[in-house]
Every structure is written in C-alpha cells, then in structure tokens.
Design the sequence.
C-alpha cells in the first residue's frame, strides 16, 4: 500500500537542502497592536523544526 502525505503537514513544513524542515512561527494571528515592532519582525522569520519533532514530520511527509 502506498504511503500518503499528510496534507496538513505538507502545507506547514518544507524540506531544506540539508534534510531538515522549516516552519512558520506561532503567535502572529491576532493581538498584534499590543506587540512592539521588533517582536513582530522576529515572528515573521522562518524557524527550523526541532530535532525531537523532526521524526514525526518525516513520517507525515514520506515523499519529502
């Protein structure tokens, strides 16, 4: 039986050239007026999936 890609994970994670996964940061949906601009700028940047969660993402994205 073919392995299927988890479609929710495919929309949230992208594989990098080194084999890791990049992700978007949380806490940027609402309540932005009270945050200062420096915090919002940091939250816009992409982050890497941690090593502890990387195996789970690997299983959800069998085809990369």
Sequence:
């Amino acid at each position: 039986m073919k392995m299927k890609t988890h479609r929710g994970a495919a929309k949230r994670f992208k594989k990098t050239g080194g084999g890791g996964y990049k992700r978007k940061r949380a806490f940027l949906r609402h309540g932005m007026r009270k945050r200062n601009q420096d915090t919002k700028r940091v939250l816009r940047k992409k982050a890497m999936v941690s090593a502890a969660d990387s195996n789970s993402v690997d299983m959800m994205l069998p085809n990369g």
Observations:
- Residues 33 and 48 are 27 Å apart (CA to CA).
- Strands lie at 14-15, 21-23, 47-48.
- The longest strand covers residues 21-23.
